[in-house]
């Protein structure tokens, strides 16, 4: 049997708590002979800064590059508000994305029937929702240069961020989205702000041309990003696959997360090109949620998104859709049984993080 190498970066805040539950799932899969893993652990974010003054060390970067897949918890927290900008916790995550060239971020948002009442929207609006946001992850305003705050001669300062996209960056993320749309409903929605941004004009033009040239079988529609935000809270089930840039994808995926009941529900996969050395895409899997420092250490975190991220690693890196399905089925089963962490409990009883992880493991073993 193949051994799957995973580099675990629990990070800050609730990251270590949700990672601990995911490690239970890894142990359970090994325990019943479904898979064999080689695990290594490292530091990213504020904890890495505390340990060696950088948001990720070169050594841990090398381990991330060498692993079959990276699993990351979350980074950041108020403790590091004062550290230099280049060393802030988020810089570790952005370095991983950029240096591993993880340009395709897949963020599936699924609303389980058992959780439809946990959403802030009406049950009929979200029940059965199943959408996939494909977010461009290594370009746009996150990385564009110049990016600086400068002093103005007459006093005051000027801040500049640069939104920049090249045709090839739009095309490669477009291909990922069209391929996914083809495997799902055959519908793709592309989103930008071409009414105010030239990067949106190029985005729109490039995706339209790509669709006409290579994906004529996929029905393509376009929405301005602000209007799409509105449509997502109005009629989210109209959408299936959504492709958008780095910043709009960041915002729209948080909106999509709340449609599912809680931001604690959404896993994500960040994929690069196939590495010729391994035949696998570079890959990092992480929850969409942040480090939630306000609840860290209290057993309140929902491990679903982190465990689901392991499931995505099984599917996309190891081609083990069977194990991904088992993990998803175990999560659906515990939700159907009524197990809830605080974020999805409404006014009902809730389980601590560790008990939720144990319930998922028990359901996995029973399947
Ligand atoms: C996300 C997060 C990150 C982002 C932060 C932590 C840098 O919000 O993955 O959605 O903005 O991409
Ligand atoms: Mg975000």
CATH architecture of the largest domain: 3-Layer(aba) Sandwich
Q: Note the main sheet.
A: 10 strands, mixed
CATH fold descriptor of the largest domain: Isopropylmalate Dehydrogenase
The hetero compounds bound to this protein are: 3-isopropylmalic acid, magnesium ion
Domain count: 2
Provide the helix percentage: 40-55%
Distance N terminus to C terminus?
A: 21 Å
What is the subunit arrangement here? single chain
Q: What is the number of beta strands?
A: 12
Pairing-aware structural class of the strands and helices? alpha/beta
Spans of at least 5 consecutive residues with low confidence: none
* CATH hierarchy, class of the largest domain: Alpha Beta
The DSSP helix count reads 12
Task: Report mean pLDDT, rounded to a whole number.
Answer: 96
SSE string, helix = H, strand = E? EHEHHEHEHEEEHEHEHEHEEHHH
Q: CATH superfamily of the largest domain, called what?
A: Isopropylmalate Dehydrogenase
List keywords for this structure.
367 residues, alpha/beta, Isopropylmalate Dehydrogenase, 10-stranded mixed sheet, 41% helix, 22% strand, globular, binds 3-isopropylmalic acid, binds magnesium ion
Task: Walk me through this protein's architecture.
This protein folds into 2 domains: about 1-105 and about 265-365, Isopropylmalate Dehydrogenase (3-Layer(aba) Sandwich); about 130-260, 3-Layer(aba) Sandwich (Isopropylmalate Dehydrogenase). It contains 12 helices and 12 strands. It has helices spanning about 15-30, 45-50, 60-65, 90-100, 125, 165-185, 200-215, 225-235, 245-260, 305-315, 320-335, 355-365, and strands spanning about 5-10, 35-40, 70-75, 105-110, 130-135, 145-150, 155-160, 185-190, 220-225, 240-245, 265-275, 280-285. The strands form 2 sheets. The chain has a 10-stranded mixed sheet, with helices on both faces. The chain has a two-stranded antiparallel sheet with strand order 6-7. Strand 1 (about 5-10), helix 1 (about 15-30) and strand 2 form a beta-alpha-beta unit. Helix 1 (about 15-30) crosses helix 10, helix 1 packs parallel to helix 12 and helix 6 (about 165-185) packs across helix 7. The longest helix is centred in the first third of the chain and has 17 residues, at about 15-30.
């Amino acid at each position: 049997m193949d051994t799957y190498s995973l580099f675990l970066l629990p990070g800050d805040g609730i990251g270590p708590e949700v990672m601990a539950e995911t490690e239970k799932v890894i142990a359970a899969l090994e325990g019943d002979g479904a898979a064999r893993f080689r695990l290594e652990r490292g530091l990213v974010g504020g904890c890495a800064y505390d340990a060696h003054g950088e948001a990720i060390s070169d050594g841990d970067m090398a381990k991330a590059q060498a692993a079959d897949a990276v699993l990351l918890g979350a980074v950041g927290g108020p403790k590091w508000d004062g550290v230099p900008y280049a060393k802030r916790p988020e810089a570790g995550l952005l370095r991983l994305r950029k240096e591993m060239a993880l340009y395709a971020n897949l963020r599936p948002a699924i609303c389980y029937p058992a959780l439809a009442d946990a959403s802030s929207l009406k049950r009929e609006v979200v029940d059965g929702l199943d959408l996939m946001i494909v977010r461009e992850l290594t370009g746009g305003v996150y990385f564009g240069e110049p990016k600086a705050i400068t002093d103005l001669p007459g006093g005051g300062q000027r801040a500049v961020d640069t939104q920049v996209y090249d045709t090839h960056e739009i095309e490669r993320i477009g291909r990922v989205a069209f391929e996914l749309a083809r495997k799902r409903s055959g519908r793709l929605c592309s989103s930008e702000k071409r009414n105010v941004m030239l990067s949106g004009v190029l985005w729109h033009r490039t995706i339209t041309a790509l669709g006409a040239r290579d994906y004529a079988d996929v029905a393509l529609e376009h929405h301005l990003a602000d209007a799409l935000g509105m449509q997502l809270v109005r009629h989210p089930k109209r959408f299936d696959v959504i492709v958008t840039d780095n910043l709009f994808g960041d915002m729209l995926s948080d909106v999509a997360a709340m449609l599912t009941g809680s931001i604690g529900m959404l896993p994500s996969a960040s994929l690069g090109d196939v590495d010729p050395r391994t035949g696998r895409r570079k890959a990092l899997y992480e929850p969409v949620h942040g480090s939630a420092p306000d609840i860290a250490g209290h057993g309140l975190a929902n491990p679903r998104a982190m465990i689901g991220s392991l499931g995505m690693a099984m599917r996309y890196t190891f081609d083990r859709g069977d194990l991904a399905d088992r993990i998803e089925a175990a999560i659906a089963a515990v939700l159907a049984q009524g197990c809830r962490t605080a974020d999805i409990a409404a006014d009902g009883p809730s389980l601590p993080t560790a008990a939720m992880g144990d319930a998922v493991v028990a359901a996995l073993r029973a399947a």
